[in-house]
């Protein structure tokens, strides 16, 4: 599967699809801090940049568009409306595959909702990844676990990519699009430590890190091999 990682999202050129996961809109307002963390501006400006860069025909939010389970925090509705408006202005259809946090999604999101989305006829399925998928696929694109990797003492959000995972299908796991979650450190994690059931052979997954400063993408060896150098 060809894909282009960029700024915690991924673009699939064959289908003209942009995928981002775990926006956790409303986490800023739910945080126990006196000063807001700039969630609205960060999410909307980066999303607009991705739309301008790739001009996708479809954007898929692969789960956890929202953060709170039982309420819609102040400002969350405005952020969701802005994201939807940016996609509409760019002529881009926006679809949400609900995640485990999206219990109030239908109260806020008026666009398309589907548990699993197949962007083309090439065997790719996009879903949040918190439950076993119903659809068969050659590749699953998911979020949910918020992977990060520590290299030389620095933790960076990372993608995890590799074949032969859930029922033999390949897997691409995205980092959280929101910068607020700390993420899980995958350096020494076993497959059983992941919350997503789609990770079955973590040692065969390659970490991929997009460097915001240089704009370069670094693809590392599979974790079984790479761990010896960490």
UniProtKB/TrEMBL annotation:
Q: Please provide an example of a Pfam family that matches this protein in its UniProt record.
A: Metallophos
Per the UniProt entry, the signal peptide is none
- Tell me the GO molecular function terms: hydrolase activity
InterPro entries, per the entry: Calcineurin-like_PHP, Metallo-depent_PP-like
Calcineurin-like phosphoesterase domain segment(s): 18-112
Check the record and name the SUPFAM superfamilies matching this protein: Metallo-dependent phosphatases (SSF56300)
List the protein's name. Metallophosphoesterase
Species of origin reads: Natronomonas aquatica
Q: What is the lineage of its organism?
A: Archaea, Methanobacteriati, Methanobacteriota, Stenosarchaea group, Halobacteria
């Amino acid at each position: 599967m060809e894909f282009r990682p960029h700024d915690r999202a991924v673009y699939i050129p064959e289908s003209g699809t942009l995928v981002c996961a775990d926006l956790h809109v409303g986490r800023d307002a739910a945080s126990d801090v006196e000063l807001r963390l700039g969630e609205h501006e960060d999410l909307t400006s980066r999303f607009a940049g991705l739309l301008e860069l790739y001009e996708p025909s479809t954007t898929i939010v692969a789960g956890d568009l929202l953060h709170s389970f039982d309420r819609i925090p102040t400002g969350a509705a405005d952020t969701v409306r802005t994201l939807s408006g940016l996609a509409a202005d760019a002529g881009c259809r926006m679809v949400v595959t609900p995640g485990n946090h999206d219990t109030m999604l239908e109260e806020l999101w008026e666009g398309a909702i589907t548990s699993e989305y197949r962007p083309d006829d090439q065997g790719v399925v996009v879903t949040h990844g918190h439950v076993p998928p119903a659809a068969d696929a050659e590749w699953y694109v998911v979020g949910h676990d918020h992977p990060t990797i520590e290299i030389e003492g620095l933790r960076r959000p990372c993608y995890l990519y590799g074949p032969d995972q859930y029922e033999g299908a390949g897997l691409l796991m995205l980092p959280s699009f929101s910068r607020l979650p700390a993420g899980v450190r995958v350096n020494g994690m076993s497959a059983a430590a992941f919350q997503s059931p789609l990770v079955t052979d973590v040692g065969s997954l390659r970490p991929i890190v997009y460097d915001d400063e240089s704009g370069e993408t670094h693809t590392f060896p599979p974790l079984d091999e790479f761990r010896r150098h960490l």
